Amino acid sequence: MIDAAELRTRTRALLEAHPPATTDRADFLKARFDAGLAWVHYPEGLGGLGAPRSLQAVVDAELEAAGAPDNDPRRIGIGLGMAAPTVLGFGTDEQKRRFLRPLWTGEEVWCQLFSEPGAGSDLAALGTRAVRDDETGDWVVNGQKVWTSSAHTARWAILIARTDPDLPKHRGITYFVCDMTDPGVEVRPLRQITGEAEFNEVFLTDVRIPDAHRLGEIGDGWKVAQTTLMNERVSIGGMRIPREGGMIGPVAKAWRDRPDLRTHDLHQRLLKLWVDAEVARITGERLRQQLVAGQPGPEGSGMKLGFARLNQEISGLEVELLGEEGLSYDDWTMRRPELVDFVGREAGYRYLRSKGNSIEGGTSEVLLNIVAERVLGLPAEPRTDKDVAWKDLAR
């Protein structure tokens, strides 16, 4: 079993062989992956060493102290937080070797083709079709996806499509890796309330996906997608942040810097939200410790649910605290950013952008059901479509 001392030795050897000050950033990241110091808990040869997940912090601390570059995780969060664990869990050896290294180094950006105009909260109702070409073995995909972050910069996408409409909606779905450079893939921007278009809608017209890019068995796509969705909620709601990190930081700073804005009522509300933010931060740390022992469970849904509520309440308080200043907005220019920066913009942006937190990554209403049924063990809501073939459902 590799311990912390061994990881420090390996990390220092990496730094000695590839000094960050004189090594090209991309070359350093590739060398780090090949040394097994990207995800230490992943298998050897796939960016890891089979070490305990908790020891990743040892490597990260050594590299940060040496001024080593990171892989810009916010820009490639979908690949790191959703695609990578799914490929690791369900991919073939060839798929793991092909996709994981450029995913981790950031050479290839990933996006997620799940939601559709008629299948958002009820994702299993998706209608994008994938039909097998008997001559070539390829899958021909037609349909539309929506709310796709990073589609305008992505090289690859994780995609679920219906392969058997004669089965109930949670069955007959298959999971694929889609090449976003295919001529049948059209990406259109979706302009948001912030003025930006970080989201996109994606149209798929006769997109050919080789069977070698299928993850999991035919018809097992919903099972594979659960791994993606659970990891997605953990990555959104369980991010590691310092005390007063995230949305609470700018509000606390404004309170300290601007005593002229203070009122008793705002003080009481800020204290409550500060405590809530700290509870969420510590709970997220506990969740990450639980991940050391296995795969994420439905607890991630609870974290993501709290993340959305907190962001919206904190940003609302910030705008109210700043008064007229909180109503200003820096730039309505139509842009297609590569990442979301909550704390790098002004209060007006945080207020508007946080409205999407209760929709993206699973709506709060759906997550409440998941927490009720899978965490609290409450009876499931009655379902009339459980055993009805997808093609016979009312749409």
Description:
The mean pLDDT is 91. The chain has a 4-stranded mixed beta sheet. It has helices at residues 4-17, 25-34, 56-65, 77-90, 93-105, 221-237, 248-257, 264-291, 299-322, 347-353, 364-375; strands spanning 110-113, 129-132, 139-145, 156-162, 173-179, 185-190, 199-209, 214-215. With 395 residues, it is an alpha+beta fold. The longest helix is centred in the C-terminal third of the chain and has 28 residues, at 264-291. The N and C termini lie far apart (54 Å).
Question: What is the gist of this entry?
Answer:
By secondary structure, this protein is an alpha+beta fold. It has helices at residues 4-17, 25-34, 56-65, 77-90, 93-105, 221-237, 248-257, 264-291, 299-322, 347-353, 364-375; strands at 110-113, 129-132, 139-145, 156-162, 173-179, 185-190, 199-209, 214-215. Helices cover 40% and strands 12% of the residues.
